[in-house]
Write a structure and sequence with these properties.
This protein is an all-alpha fold. The protein has eight helices and no strands. The chain has helices spanning 2-13, 16-31, 37-47, 52-61, 64-77, 83-92, 96-110, 115-136. 35% of the residues are buried.
Amino acid sequence: MRGVLLIPLLAVACAPEVREAVLAQDAEAVASASAQAEAAMLRLVGVGRAAIPAIETALYAARIEGRLDLIVTLRRIGDGEAIPLLLHRARRDEDERVRKEAEWTLRGWAGGKDERAARARRALRALEETRADEKSG
């Protein structure tokens, strides 16, 4: 249990390249849906916005279950900086479940009254426009 709590502190306090490596390792653990995925997810959530680039990278190589878990991780982080990434996954992911999970996250965020909610609503409008274009073209 101590190791789980110390890793986010190490990630925040160490050199940027070491921090990026730790975040990448955690994102890959979540993406692999391994036994360590839940602990890695909690560490990424604890780091917050700084984990988003590592999650984005991990999404490209992740299998479906891993991508779903990474979307949930972004939702738990709750940072509006993830909106472009969520929009991309809602538009273009090859798996319908991943597309729905990303859209569901955007819809949940869109219900608020802050800047993140306004950005999520704009993203949902863009998603609807993409779908309308695909149907008509």
